Each structure stands twice: as structure tokens, then as C-alpha cells.
Amino acid sequence: MKRIYLDYAATTPTHPGVIVAMLPYFGDAFGNPSSIHSFGQEAKGAIEEARGKVAALVGARSDEIVFTSGGTEADNFAIKGVAYANEHRGNHIITSSVEHHAVIEPLKFLERRGFEVTYLLVDEHGSVDPQDVRKAITDKTILVSVMYANNEVGTIEPIAEIGEIARERGICFHTDAVQTVGHIPLNVNELGVDLLSMSAHKLYGPKGVGALYVRKGTKLVSLMQGGEQERRRRASTENVPAIVGFGKAVEIVQGGMREEAERVALLRDRLIEGLLERIDRIRLNGHPTKRLPNNVNVSIEFVEGESMLLNLDLEGIAASTGSACSSSSLEPSHVLLALGLSHEQAHGSLRFSLGRETTEGEIARVLEVLPRIVAKLRSMSPLLKSRA
Amino acid sequence: MATNIWALYSEKVMEHFRNPRNVGEMESPDGIGYVGNAVCGDIMELYIRVEDGVITDAKFKTFGCGAAIATSSMVTEMVKGKTVDEASEISNRAVAEALDGLPPIKMHCSVLAEEALKSAIDDYLNNSKRGAPGNE
């Protein structure tokens, strides 16, 4: 059975070209970029070349890119870094209620240490209202952090509008763009962001590497001390092969990004329409139009997400769910609850995230298989008595 | 190969998940158990038929994860042919063991299965108490 991978938002397959580009840096080109001999300088050159590519992808300057161990570290660095660099000025931070845990948890950490955080509510599509950001600002506000696109429901937030407000008030603005970078074209200057998080493995690069864009002049306390790397912003010998792979992945996705986004959006819409047509008591989660080109998130009534995932997996289809049953915390997705879904609807959610290898045939297969799975599970659901 | 992808669950859990036994509602059962809630994400409904103090049939309907479905299926298998007294001794551990174990975070599903059974037995005992005079 040929397996169908529709969980690109979790991670993407490393592009074969990326692997080829990385290999020399596990071998002959093993030098430490901090060394002044030719071994070191070779590695240093490779890192700087990758930095240039990543910078170009988001419209930044090379010296504004700090490589990290991934998106989570980039988020932690942005949030704690700004908070501790500005604690003499204020202790208030504004964010949304649908952020990734990599943003929420550092904020909770700061709250336990005396910072105050406002979690803005979102509408039923998961959108933040920029005017809510304006209203939440106080003279103690030192940071606004709102994600570019939601990892669960795909909603794209009005980042440029929020950026304008933050700039007007002279407040530092961070966006977690882990799901967006490499998928839709973006520019840090047009968005008005000061900090932007990204991750390589979401764009066909290797795991264990990401980057934080830091606008020149942004005050940031570093989380890692012990070396001069990354302009003293992040001590630690650079993960050279991974950084090189990141650069190569950026080069690959940058060519034809718009076309690929259009192609995938067509498949996304076909999947959404097909599911809504073939399954009753189903709803689309997230914004109907302002959404990532590769994200489909639905809630299917009377059935639970993990049991749908297991059945899909038995058919060779990989997807994801916001059901509590699939998480170790046994809490349903905070994002779906923030959109106003009931616990039952959150438990019955499924996310399909598409990618470069997704084909029409694969979408057709999901549309053929899922209604059958839903019917089977509904036949054993106690929530569906009168209809049995 | 598909069955081994879920390192989370034993083959027995997956077998009961794929082919659950005793699914469905029962017409005029002697006891109905209903446990769980939408907040935690698992809801089980369990029906038993009792003749001369022996559980002769059991059925279930479950909204929940793979473990919830498998434990429901297993507990309905385990009670059949047991006396009501014997059945009320079935523990969640016994259900989990019969499935070759559950991951720690899924043990609550076996608790739910035990509670559904206890609730069905309680319902049966209440019904028979209430129905005893006159019906005998």
C-alpha cells in the first residue's frame, strides 16, 4: 500500500537536494566555523552563504538572521529575550489566544516571574482584530507577539496591520511565521515586524535548525552564553550541516513558491468541498479564505479524532487531530476552543496539511476513504442515538 | 506493516479497535451503564441482558479514542457468561491486561470501561429491586 502523507504542518520530508548539500559537512568539510584555519573558514563560508539565502527569503539583511535549534528556540529567544532586555521599561506583553505552545509556554514562564500577559480573543475564524491590539496597549507594554498563520486551523492573521500599530506606538513586534515561511511570500519590512521565527523542517529542510530574524537595533538578551557565535547572540558551535541544509531548502522552495501555493490551494479547496459534500454534520475550522494554502481543518460531529486518525492510518493516510485523546495532557486543542468550538467538536477535529508531493489522486483517496470511516464510527457512537 | 506503525497500542488493542465485538444498542436491556463526558472526550454506553443472575449478552456504543473502543469491546466480551457478582469484580486492570496492556495515558479508558460495567450492573440491580414485587 502506498502511504499518503497529509501532515506537512507537523513536518515535511527533507528534500533529496538538501541531503546532498548537507553531506560534505558531515565529511571533509567538518571544520568549526570559529577556527581561523581553512577548515574553519570553509564551514564559516557555508554558514554565511546559508544566512544570505534565509535573509533574502524574508527580505532581511544577512546580519539580522540568527540561527537557532528550531522554531521553538526562535520563539523562546524572541519572547524572553525582549522581555528581559526591556524589563526596566515595562512588564506587559500582548499576544493572542491561539498561539503555538512555543509562544504560550515562555509567556507563562514570564508570568510566573512578574510579567503580565494579555491573551487577545479571536473571532470564530481564529482572526485577531488589530483594533484589539491597539486597545490592549498600555504604557507598560514592551512586546506584541501574534503568529503569522495558525498551525492548527491555518488562519492568516493581519500581521501588517498589527505591525503598523506596534510601530506607531514604538513597541517591539514578534511573529511566529513557522507555518508561513517558504509557503507564502513574505517580507519583514512590509509586515513591520521586528522579530520573526522560522523553522527549516517545515520547508523541506532538516530538523533541529531554525532562525530568528532580528531587526537591526532590536534589544534582545541572549539565552545562551559561552561563545562568540551568531554575533554573540547565541553561543554554541553552529550546526553547520543543518544550517547548510536550511539554506538549500530555502533555495528550493523560493523558486516557484507562488505557483506551488496556487497548486496546493486548489487541492486544498477540492478536499474541503469534497468533505463538506460527502459528510453531513461537518464544519470547516479556520478562516474560509484567509488561510494557508495547504491547511484543511474540519470538525466532524459524533466521532472522535484519534479513532479517525487510527482508521485513516490503517488505510495508509497520515493526518492529525486536536482531540484530547491524542495529546498527553488529555486537553483538547486550545486553538479550537478559542474559536468557540464545543469540547465535542474539538474532539472530532481532523487536520490535513498538504505539501509539494500531494497529488489529486491522494485527495481523491481521502474523499473515498474518510466518509466510510466516519460512517463506521458513527454507527458505534452513543451521541447519535435517534439517528441510528 | 500498518499495524506496527502505532507503537502506542498492542496488537490486541488494534485488533479490537478494527473489529470491535458487540457494537450496537440492545432492545430492552436489563441494565444500562452510561459514563464519561464530552469534556474528557470519551463517552461509553453499555447494555447488559441478565437471565437467572447470569449476564447472557452485552453490547456497547462508544465515542472515544482507539483505547476507549478497544476496552469497551473487551469488557463486553469478558462479562458474557459471568454471574452479576463475578462481573462486578472485573477491574480496569483486568480489562487492560486482557488487551495486553495500555499506554499509561490511556489507562483512564480502562477505568471508564470498568465504571460503565459497574453502572450497568447498578442499573440492573435497581431495576430488579423496583420490579421485584408483582413481577415475580
Structural features, described:
- The complex is a heterodimer of chains A (388) and B (136).
- Chain A has 388 residues and is of the alpha/beta class.
- Helices cover 39% and strands 13% of the residues of chain A.
- Chain A has 2 domains: 16-254, Type I PLP-dependent aspartate aminotransferase-like (Major domain) (Aspartate Aminotransferase, domain 2, 3-Layer(aba) Sandwich), CATH 3.40.640.10; 256-384, Aspartate Aminotransferase, domain 1 (Alpha-Beta Complex).
- The longest helix of chain A has 22 residues, at 257-278.
- The two termini of chain A are 33 Å apart.
- The model of chain A has no long low-confidence stretch (mean pLDDT 96).
- Chain B has helices at 2-5, 11-18, 66-79, 84-88, 92-98, 107-135; strands at residues 31-37, 42-51, 54-63.
- Chain B contains 6 helices and 3 strands.
- Chain B has one domain: Alpha-Beta Complex (Sufe protein. Chain: A).
- Chain B is α+β, with helices and mostly antiparallel strands and 136 residues long.
- Helices cover 49% and strands 20% of the residues of chain B.
- Chain B is globular and about 50 Å long.
- The longest helix of chain B is centred in the last third of the chain and has 29 residues, at 107-135.
* Elements of chain B, N to C (H/E): HHEEEHHHH
Largest sheet of chain A: 7 strands, mixed
Question: What level of helicity do the residues of chain A show?
Answer: 25-40%
Strand order of the largest sheet of chain A: 2-8-7-6-5-3-4
| CA radius of gyration of chain B | 15 Å
Q: Which range does the strand content of chain B fall in?
A: 15-25%
Strand tally of chain B is 3
